[in-house]
Every structure is written in structure tokens, then in C-alpha cells.
Amino acid sequence: MSAISLRGVDIAYAGQRVVHGVSFEVGKGESFALVGESGSGKSTVLRAIAGLAPEWIGEITLLGQPGSHRPNRTLARHCQMVFQDPYGSLHPRKTVDAVLTEPLAIHGIGNRDARVERVLADVGLDRRFRFRYPHQLSGGQRQRVAIARALMLEPEVLLLDEPTSALDVSVQAEILNLLKRLRAEHGLTYLMVTHNLPVVSFLCERIGVMNKGRIVEIAPATALHDGAFSDPYSQALYAASGRE
Predict the structure, then answer these.
(1) What angle do CA 58, 47, 49 make, to 5 degrees?
(2) How confident is the model at residue 159 (pLDDT cuts 50, 70, 90)?
């Protein structure tokens, strides 16, 4: 069974269709990337899977269960999203502890102290960070907290929306190494959106190339090393990355 499956998915905003007939599957434990230029529809696909883009038709399944047109608690237990901007995704007036315990409270999960400290350790933050506010953290630390929040419910799938693009280059490498380690330790499935092809070659096995709301090619990540793309747009994207 696939962890994520999309078949013939169209997505609209305010009645305007922006994603057309998208189909792909992500196996359990796999790391799959959607790549393409800004506006190609990559993040919109993630939002539809997460129940944050209600205007879609087609078939979305997550761990064998049908997708939702709105956020729901069952979906949240199995699938969480890490957003692009660590500055905007954390509430400025809530401590790290409040951010991490909120999903536990919503889902009625106990043993909160132990869970918070364990997840903080998982993302490389010690207990001193627990009662700090976002403005007291660096960008990399904020993104570690955002990843910790996504892990609190012990999901099987993480949706990663440009998880390093808002960070300094040196910090990007730290977060990518963290994501790679967490996937190995927890058996996670990743679906990542990015325009950064080196990130894909480090973290993913396969790539779906999007252009103007459509997937034009699905290729192995090894194509980023040997240039073995078949679609002209994919070839142009590869050439523009300077990896020839």
C-alpha cells in the first residue's frame, strides 16, 4: 500500500483551476519531491493532501484512507505539515512548550512532559528551550521547533513545504541532516516541495517535475546527477540549476 496516492487530481482556488490532473504515488518510507518554478502548483498539492485546499476533485488517499476537503483530527494523527517560514508558523506569544503541547491537548494525549522533552531531544534542542518564545530563537531553532511540533502526534507522513528555503545556507545543511536522521529513526514518509535541486538529491529517491499545474515527468533522483530527464521542461530546469 502506498503512503500517499493521487489520481487525476484537479485543485482550484476561488473557482479558478490551478492544478490539472495530477497523479503520483509515494511508497511507505519513501522520500519524494515535487519540483518546479514558483507558481507551478507544488505547494497547492501539499495543501490539498493536508486538507487545507478544499476545492479539489479526483482521488487522494493517505495510508489507504480517503483524503479530506478540510482539516480533520484523524488525518492529523497520521500526516503533519512543516511550513516554509519558521518565523510565521509559530505563534509569537506562545512558548515552545505551549506550541508542542497544544496538539496533545487537542487529541487528548497524556504524558505531555515526557513527550515534549523526548521530541525536543529528537530535533537537537535541550530542555532549556522549552519555555522560550519564538523571538528568543534563531531561524534554525524555530524550524527545529516546527519539526518537533509536526512530530508530537507521532505521524507516519510529513509534508515538507520548502523546509529550508528561509534559512541561511549553513543552517540549511543542519536541518537537512536532521530531516534525514529523523526519517531513518522513525520510518517516516516524506513528500517535499522545493525548487532547490541539490536538496532533492540529498534527501529524496524520486522527483515529480511540475510545470503550470501539471506533472510533466516523474524521474529517479539520480537524474539530477546524470541529466537523464526526458521532458523538455525538466531538461531546461536541470540546465538552469547549473548541474550539467
Answers:
(1) 45
(2) very high
Q: Helix count (H) and strand count (E) of the chain?
A: 9, 10
pTM over 0.90: yes
**Under 8 Å CB-to-CB from 29, ≥6 apart: which residues?**
3, 183, 187, 188, 189
pLDDT on residue 66: 95
Residue 75 and residue 60 in contact, taking contact as beta carbons nearer than 8 Å? no
16 contacts: CB under 8 Å, gap ≥ 6: none
CA atoms within 13 A on the CB side of 116: 20
pLDDT value at residue 151:
97
- The secondary structure of residue 201, as a DSSP letter, is H
CB of 10 within 8 A of CB of 57? Answer: yes
State the alpha helices, DSSP H only, in 107-187.
112-122, 139-151, 169-186
pLDDT for res 198: 86
| CATH class, 2-89+155-240 region | alpha beta
Ramachandran region of residue 171, left (φ > 0), alpha (ψ -120 to 50) or beta?
A: alpha
Between 85 and 127, where is the model more confident? 127
